[in-house]
Each structure stands twice: as structure tokens, then as C-alpha cells.
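writing this on my phone so excuse typos. first protein, seq and then structure
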Amino acid sequence: MKKMILALTALLLMGSGVQAQKINREALVQKIEKNEAAAADAKKAVKAATWINLGKSYIEAATLPTKDLYVGMLEMELQMKLGAPLSNEAIVIDNVTLAGANYDYFTACVMEGQVIGWKETAQVFPGATDKAIEALNKAYEVDPKQAPKIREQLMLISNYCSQLGDASNNIAEYRTATEAFKTAFRAQSSPAFGTPDASRLYYAGYCATAAGANDPASYAEGAELLNKALDLGFVDETGQIYYYLYHSYYGQREADRANVLKAKDALMTGITKFPKNQDILKSLIMLYSLEEGMGDPSELIAMLDEAIAADPQNIELWFSRAQISVALKEYDEAIEALKKTIELNPNSYEAQFFTGYYIIIKADALNTIANEKVYTSMDEAEADQKQIMAIYAEAIPYLEAAHELMPQNSDPVQLLKTLCFRLRDEVEGMMEKYQKYDALYKQMA
């Protein structure tokens, strides 16, 4: 216990006495100037070490001010490492107010006690990262055998820029994020590095597309970067690159209507490769609904049918077909598609639940039609209601199966409670089921 008390005391003393981080800018600039002079010397310029040292001095100048920062850093740790901020300010991002801690070279944005990003407000040596890449490329040109050492320095640049890109993206500084990720990729594209990571282009493309909301010219850059990432063989795990590519083209629709068709093509390619991607699916449906010249929405079904014919065991394709069918209000086709997923995997909670859910949607639609219909007799109205109630009852076995597969999920229980109450006078035993699921739902709530 005594050791713990002493440790805490030391920690408090350290925190209270820490002064703001001081960067010796003059010394860093002098080091750069010294190394630049060496690189300008004809005898020294033929040595790779001269250019590597120059690159290192540029890297140090670029990275030193934020070397101790990282996204997720606790505000307490920020002040322990860098001292109290010079000043504080309120920063509003997307209608959310953040705490801004101003230091000599950056402003850290803090939310709920954690650093979520920062904005560089000054540089020790402007253009240092670009100059570092140039120097390291020259080092490789002078002596390719020094590639391992040069690669280490290039990785430092890439890591610094990637971290800056992430931090900038988190606080909606999308232009800064775009340039940071582009520089990260440029560092990795140097001949001494090896194969670059195309995900840096993907992140740059995403950030440029996000910047398009306030800077429409950025949409074109976003499309260029995302397409370059695709050309290099990059595709993220869920296919979001096609969703962002769609946005980058659709954001240019006022400049050239041909971009709407390019946006459609991006989504079409994406949905065939990632049929379970909800963003792509919803965007396709929206595009067909809002834009003229897209063709008949049923071509989406034809496209999926073609994909299913080539891969009939692909459950995700059947799910997508069901979702598009529901959007087109073709409820029977949607239900049949989901029944196929149950056939392929009876233990799929999603297949069982959504089959029951879509049956309810179908019955709700028929009920709406019945409520608007002018009947000529009570018998006719009762016949329609009897048919609708029979359809509602079809959902119960699927929802019960979903409940058995995932008993902790309350969604099937809630629907079963509502359905059984609705059918209590129509189907024998429904009142008992209602009481069972009502009690269970209350218990889960």
C-alpha cells in the first residue's frame, strides 16, 4: 500500500510540474541547413549517407511536434507528456462541441476526455516531408544497396502521414487528411520501399470524396484516387470502396450528367461482388428512384438472377434479391428468395427472422389496400380479412425459429407478441402464445 501511495504522489507531482513541450526550432533548422550544405558539396553528394542524413533531418522536423500524440490518447496523458496547453477553445464539428487544446504547433481536439484528432497549426520546416522523400530517393539513386536503411526512413514518413490523415479525418479536416494519405502513399512508392500499400490511396480517395460536400472539385480527385486503388488491386473487406466511388461520381452530376451513369456502374460492380453491402444496395435503390434514365428497376433483379445462376449457393445473393424485391414491393418474390436462404442454411437467424418479417410487411400492405377498398358487402370484407390474417399467421413459425436460434434477441419476441395478440380471436391457441411472449418480452425489457 505504501508503494502505491508513493507512486501516486510521484504521478501527481509530475503532472502538476510539467511545462508545455518546447521544440528547439532553431536547432532543427540548423541541422537541416548543415545537411543541405553537405548535399550541395560535390564530393559528399556521391555518398548515400549524405542524402539519408538530409532525409532524417527533414523527417525529424516534420514529426517531432506531434510524435507523442495518438488518437485515443487520454487528456490527462496529453498534459503529462506535453504540459498544459497555451490556451483552450471550443471547436464545433458536425454540431458537436469539442474541447480544443492549443499548443505551439497543433490544436488537439478532445471529446469525453480523449484526443480524437488534431490540426497542425505550424511547421518547423514547411514542406519537410516532400523534401525528405526527394532526399531519400536521391540516396537510393546514389547507392541502391542502401535500400533497407532508406526504407526505414520512408516508413517513418508514411506512418507519420497516415497518423495525421487519421487524426484529420476524425475532426472533418478532409483536405488535410487527403494530402496526408497521398503523401503516405508517395513515400511508399519510392523505389527503395518495395510494394506500396494501396489502402493509402483508398483512404485518400475517401477523404477527398468527403471533402466534396464543401469543395465540389474534390469529388473528381476522390474518383481518381479510388480508381487508382482499384487498379492496383485494392478492395476493402466489405466493398465500401465502390460505395465511396459512387458518391465521388454522383457528387459531379451537375458538372456532367454522364457521371450519374458512372455512379450507377460503380454500384452495380460493387453489389455483384459484395451483395450484402447495405450502403451499396440502398444507394442503388435510391438512384433508380430519383434519377431518370437509369432503366427499369427490375434490371437489378435480372442482374442478381444472373449472379445467382452462376453461384446458386450464395446466401448473400439471395438476401440481396429479397431486399430489392421488397423495395419494389414484390413481396412474394422477396419471401421466396428468403425461403431459399433457409433451405441453404436452416440455422440462419437472419434468414428465419426476415422471412417472418417480410411476411408481415406483405400482410400490412394487403391490409392497407383493404382499408382503402369500398366493399359492397360485409361478407366480402370479412373474406379479405380472413385471408390477411392467414398471411400474418404464416410469419409465426419463422419468427419462433429465429427466437430459438437467438433467444437473447428481443426483436422476434416483440413481433410474436404483437402477432399473437392480433390473431387471438382467429387462430386457436394464439391467446396462450400471446401471454407467453408478452411475459417474456417484459422480462427481457
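second protein below, same order as before
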Amino acid sequence: MRIWLLPLLMMPLSAEVLLQQSAFLPGEWATWSHRPETMPRTFIDQHVSRGGQGSLAINGASNVAAYGGWRKQVSGLEGGAWVRMRAFYKAESVAAENWQIVARLDWQNATGKRVGEPAYIPWTRHQNEWSELSAETQAPAGTASVVVELLLANAPQGTVWWDEVSLELISPPAARKVNIATVNLRPRQTSGSEESVSQFIAAIGKSVPANTDVILLPEGISIVGTPKTILEVAETIPGPTTKALSAVARARKSYIVAGIYEREGHVMYNTAVLIDRNGELAGKYRKVYLPREEVEKGLTPGTHFPVFKTDFGTVGLMICYDVFFAEPARALANQGAEMILMPIWGGDETLAKARAIENGVFLVTSGYDHPTYIMDPMGERLAQARDQGTAATATVDLAKQYSWQWLGEMRTRRLKELRMDVAVPPPGVLR
């Protein structure tokens, strides 16, 4: 194996580096497929690379069944060790890079048998012609070595070039503890928005601990309990409600998420706002899936699913009726959301649980006719606020990996197996 050339030759090599290679010679990597009939064309391409030293190439060989590529066994591992893998790839004529271009770690015990489940390397950053895949993961118990696999899957006209492959031992990631509070309150018979919002702020003061990182309030906090219409309570953002929430966020040094009705010119939205610890508006999400009842009240649907970087991790927002559809939570998880905060009026509890499980995310709800709870990526409720004026609180660790016994860690596996390239027929069109 050759080590990366200049300028990396001038860098001191740590004993923690298990593999680091960007120049390739025949015999250093083995080729692999399930059987001869599915073997893609593999070759070392001396004309394509990031640094002028060639790359590991795979071509689909006009064979829709072709699945395979390059493998290299790396020793020096023990069960429980944490590793970071990186690899760069360049692709041509590959329709769905997320699942057709595969880098993964296949853990082996001392006798060469698989232990645990292979770890996929899912997160991609595009850098001009080349893309970087990277991930940090933990070797399962019983690991003695690992097979690094660089593959091309079922892309008959596609070619992928792999370069700058590295695997290094790292320290276990530090815990990323997040203190969450979600409020259960339904104001009744208030005079208007200001009084309803004031009751939510009072509930925060009464029931939310001082060291809370993020506080969730329900949907439509500016209308619930009032005799007003959406048209009457809709406001600009920033506006009176966000100003009141900002003061609380700033005083408590907490993020706050709440649902309000937004007015922008003549357009009205059902919106969730994210206020940061300094009381600044960190982002907002306009509800994409509007039920018929909201459309008939004059609301306009949003058009995208943003995620937001906080000082503790990446969060996404959903609102109520979004939970009845798979796309909102999927879109947020695809962009790296680790936690979904969902103001909700009422909705199906089974579907909410499914959204957490299928995307491997924490799901936090604050509702009126839907329970108020904090759920982990396995669909287990960690805390629930059952009484009015109380808050469910829990401390979660965003660095923790959750694994299924027979499937492994599904948050990242799903990203590498999700089929977005298969056309879905338009809704309601019969054939």
C-alpha cells in the first residue's frame, strides 16, 4: 500500500491511522461480487485521480445485475473501537448515487466471520467533480478486523472512481446531551393572542427547568383559546408573538419552538418559528401539508423542508398534519436532522411513532388533542406531560447510536438504501 503523496508525505503519521491511500497498484485491493455473473468491470485508472496517482475504478459493464467492486481487509481493531472513514468518489452515468455508490465497513471476528451489521458511510459533500463520503462509527463486540468495501450497485452504464481512502481510530465521540422540555397547555376563553401567549410563557416559568436547551410549544399558540379567526391573529415574523418568545428565550438562554399564524403581505401561513438562545429568530418552517380545513380558512402551504443548525445539533420542524405523510420527516432526516420538533393540534400517534422509527430521529411533540411527549429513535416515549400546565422533560444524547438487532443502525443504513430514483405514480391517477 502506498501512503498519500505530497503534501501528505510531510504530515506526521499517527499510529491511529489504519488505512490511508490515494495511489494504487495491482494486488493491493481485491475485487469482489456475489458471483461471476454480477461482477462489474474493475480496473486501476491511472488517468483519473484527485492527486495524479490513479484511482480504483468500477464500471457497470452494461449489466443491470452488476454489483461489486473493491475490498481491503484492515486489522488493528477491537470491539467497541470508534473509527472514522473517508473516501472520495467521482461518478458518471449513475442515476442514484445514494444507494448505487456504496462505501461500507464489514466487521470481522478473529476467524474471518462477520460480526454485527456492516456500517454504511452515508454523508456526502460535493467538491467540484469529486464527492466526499464520511462517517464515524463503532465496531461491534467481537471485532478483530474490518473489510473496507468500495462498491457500485446495479448501474449498468455507470462508472465510479474511488480515491483518497482513509480509516483511522478515533476517540469515542463526546456525549451531546440536550435537555428538552415540551409544554402541555391549552388556554381556554382568553381575550386574544396576547393572553393566550402569556399563559404559555407563564407555563414555561412554572414547569420548565432552568437549564433547558430547547423548549417546545404547540401549534397555533396565538389563536388557541381565543374567539379570533386566523385572519385576525395572523402577524408578521418578527412580530408581537416572536417578540414575547424572544424575551423568554434570551432570559433563559434556551431555544424555543412554537407554532403561530404568519402574515406576509396578503398571504397567510401556518408557521413554526425557532428562536435561539439570544432571542434571535433562527429560522421558520411554513407548514407544507395543509388539511382541507386550513385551506378553506385561507392559508397557503409552504414549499420546502428546511433544517436548522443549533449549538447542540441539527433540528427539523414539522407541524401537525405533516405527520400523516412520510415525506416531511424523510426530507428532514435526509438533510441530517437528528431531532424533529413538532407543534401539533391533533394527529395519529401511531404515525408519529413511525416517523421517529423510520428515520431514526428523536421526535418531540407539543399538542392539544395529541399527547405531549419526547420520543427516542426506537419509538419509545422517554417522557410525557399528562396534566395541563406541565412539561415533559428529558435529557437525550444525540451522539448515541441506536441499533436494531437484525438490521443494525438504521438511521444511516436507510440513507444508503432509500430508493428515490424509482418513479412514484401521480396520486389519484388510475391506469
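The CA atoms of residues 109 and 144 lie 5 Å apart. thats all i got for now
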